[in-house]
């Protein structure tokens, strides 16, 4: 059984680990597999990559004061990931693609099990980071520092 305060105590660290995995995955897809990122992929990367540094330092120092600054990055990144995923899976939204040149945002390099695409993986990562940050935000609430 998971202790009730596990996510509260280690939420910052868990969020950092998810950001590491997500960034590693995105770099693997682009640098090893040769998948060229579209415009929306780049926006998601812009919001994910700084989280490695910010959450890594904050985890090391156990500094929860970073959460109000990093939580908006993960929420906005999740919104972009959701929009990107919907562009891939809902045919009518593909015409709204901001990708005018280069790789189309509606294209899918992977489509595992018929629903898991790269934007879906990014969405899951942003949701997990947001959840862990939210759960880890009030470890010391009600106590004197």
TrEMBL record:
Gene3D superfamilies: DsbB-like. It comes from the Bacteria. The keyword Transcription does not apply. It is a multi-pass membrane protein. One of its GO terms (molecular function) is protein-disulfide reductase activity. Pfam families: DsbB. The keyword Membrane applies. GO terms for cellular component: membrane. It is found in: Membrane. InterPro entries: DiS_bond_form_DsbB/BdbC, Disulphide_bond_form_BdbC, DsbB-like_sf. The chain crosses the membrane at residues 12-30, 42-60, 67-86, 112-135. Keywords: Chaperone, Disulfide bond, Electron transport, Membrane, Oxidoreductase, Redox-active center, Transmembrane, Transmembrane helix, Transport. GO terms for biological process: protein folding. Belongs to the DsbB family. BdbC subfamily. HAMAP family: BdbC. NCBIfam families: PRK03113.1 (NF002849). This is Disulfide bond formation protein B. The lineage of its organism: Bacteria, Bacillati, Bacillota, Bacilli, Bacillales.
């Amino acid at each position: 059984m998971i202790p009730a305060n596990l996510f509260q105590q280690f939420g910052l660290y868990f969020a950092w680990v998810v950001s590491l995995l997500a960034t590693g995955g995105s770099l693997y897809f682009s640098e090893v597999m040769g998948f060229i990122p579209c415009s929306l992929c780049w926006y998601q990367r812009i919001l994910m990559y700084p989280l490695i540094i910010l959450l890594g330092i904050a985890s090391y120092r156990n500094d929860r004061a970073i959460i109000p600054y990093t939580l908006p990055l993960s929420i906005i990144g999740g919104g972009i990931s959701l929009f990107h995923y919907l562009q891939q899976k809902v045919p009518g939204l593909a015409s709204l693609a901001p990708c005018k040149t280069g790789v189309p945002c509606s294209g899918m390099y992977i489509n595992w099990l018929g629903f898991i695409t790269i934007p879906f993986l990014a969405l899951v990562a942003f949701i997990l980071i947001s959840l862990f940050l939210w759960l880890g935000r009030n470890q010391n609430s009600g106590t004197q520092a």
